[in-house]
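Write out the 3D structure for:
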Amino acid sequence: MVICGWHRTGTTSLHVALQRLGYQVHGFDRALALEQMYGKLGHIWRAAARAEAFRDFPWSLLYREFDQRYPGSRFILTVRDAEGWIASYKRHDDNHRGAEYHRWLYGLSTPDGNEQAFIRTYLAHNAAVQQHFHERPEQLLTVNVFEGSGWDELCGFLDKPVPTSPFPNEKSAVL
C-alpha cells in the first residue's frame, strides 16, 4: 500500500494509523529519494520488499511503478487545501531550503515568492494520481485528515475493524 499524498498532507498521521492497524510502514527515506532523483530504483525495490506500506518520498512519486509492479495494491491519496499546504510547507522548508530534491520536484529551491508554482506542482500531483486510478476507484482512497477523515474511511477501505482509540494527529515537524 502506498500513501501517494504529497508531504505536509497528513502522511505522518496516516503512517501511525497504519502501524496501529498492524502494518509495517516505511517512511521518508532521503537516501532513496536522492537515488530516485537520479533514476536509480534498484535500492528502492529492495527496500520495498521489507515493508507493507509506504509514505512520503520517494514512495509517493512511485505510485505508477508500484501499481504496475504489484497489481491490485491499494493507494491512499492524502490531500489538504492548497493554501494550508503551502503555508505548512513554507514553515517546514526553513530546515530544508535549497535542498537538491526540492529543486528537482518543483524546479525551484524555495517557495518564497514561488508559492503559486509550488501549489501548481502539488495540485498536478493530486490530479495525476486521481486520473491514474480513475477507472479503478476501489484501489484509491482519498482522505483529508484536516477535514475529519479518519478511521471510518481508512478501515472501510482496508476492510479492518475500526479502533476505539482516536485517529492519530501527528506532526512530523511544524504543521
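The chain is about 45% helix and 10% strand.
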